[in-house]
Amino acid sequence: MIECDDVLTPVQLEAALRRIGAERYHSLHPFHRLLHGGKLDLGQVQAWALNRYVYQAAIPRKDAALMSRLRSPELRREWVRRIHDHDGWGEDEGGIARWLRLTDGLGLDRDYVISEEGALPATKFAVEAYVRFVAERSELEAIASSLTELFAPAIHEERIAGLLAHYPFIDENLVAYFRRRLNQAPRDATFALDYVKRHARTRAEQKAVLAALRFKTDVLWAQLDALYFAYVEPALPPPGAFRPALGAASRRS
Amino acid sequence: MIECDDVLTPVQLEAALRRIGAERYHSLHPFHRLLHGGKLDLGQVQAWALNRYVYQAAIPRKDAALMSRLRSPELRREWVRRIHDHDGWGEDEGGIARWLRLTDGLGLDRDYVISEEGALPATKFAVEAYVRFVAERSELEAIASSLTELFAPAIHEERIAGLLAHYPFIDENLVAYFRRRLNQAPRDATFALDYVKRHARTRAEQKAVLAALRFKTDVLWAQLDALYFAYVEPALPPPGAFRPALGAASRRS
After folding, report:
1. A73 to chain B, minimum CA–CA distance in Å?
2. pTM (predicted TM-score)
3. Which H/E stretch holds residue B48?
4. Which residue of chain B comes nearest to A61, CA vs CA?
5. Where exactly are the structural domains of chain B?
6. Theoretical Cys-Cys bridge with B64: which of A68, B116, B165, B177, CB 3.0 to 4.6 Å?
């Protein structure tokens, strides 16, 4: 039995981190059950994709904020790959461009998506809270907050299968983002997990690391709460937020 | 005759920026005259190289701080090259590693250099002031503060020639950093100058851009004032700062 204030071994710390995923990762959110189960109409899928764009677009800013605090060139050289993954580099168009293929394919105007004008305020607040967390907390907490990537491949597998099976308006081109992340996320998560296990040595550091991952699961969960409230039940989008066209709503799969 | 509050044309703005370089760039500092003219002893060159390391090592943090605020993936993709230039990427060891070849070659212990323990407090203050400026000011000011690179090739040419001609302890391997910057700096400076000319459209923006470049020349100049004071005249290194070994001082070229 582990007492509350014992220092965890690296193996115990990893187990505690994975337990947070099992209990709090947004794969458990009812909105994702609806999305992956084919229960949403086109307008609701559009709302999800344009809100999630805000998150995707902010990830390189988040990673640059972390890099601006790393004093090790080796660590920065590892971390900069994440910026390339999203912004593109060389031949690779990058994850943000792949996400825009999804929103294009869903019939959303690209400039409107990029402007973020129709995104929910709660989405923007959650995303900026994440960027600020990484900019302001310790390196260790900032790196630990990336560990939701440990749990991403499972949800991406489920999402690819669900989207392709249930929605006639979604094809392979539109899920390119998730296919690519199947390889990228495990590489990044392995590095970050190893870093955290090596560097979180005191109980205070371990508590901070666990809290950072819980914070990050909150950031993800809050975005889905806001989507659910605005577009599922009671379906009350706030002033200024995206409203699905009638045509979109009628194309329920 | 241009009145004080007229909006400058892009061509006039460029001329005003270049005038700042002509009047304030650290190529004019007496310490550089001594360095490039072969008037320093080994210990003084060591002091210069280990202090300047602090600046070199901070550049990627500065560029990441800027990237953490850029909302355009295209602009970030351009800017991230600067991080690669310094941290290394793929086959390229990067500018920080090239700088360490210089400090190695000068006989300084690598861990001591990287620890920054012997660097002058004034160096660290100036460098961190630059990182904070870029993190906190407008994108336009942050980008404008990089424009000292417009003036860098001339000083690098002069430095390579002067160091090789005057100091028996400096060879081609030790000036690799400057050789490489001869190509990198003009590419970066051209991009940043074009950006500033396109985006500084109001007089207030133009004043901010000019002030940013003046600030940056202050950052560079202050580092040389501190070196001069500590190691040339009156030659009073502050407590804890690097002190050249007697052996080093005797190897005056």
Report:
1. 5
2. 0.91
3. helix B42-67
4. B68
5. 10-234
6. A68
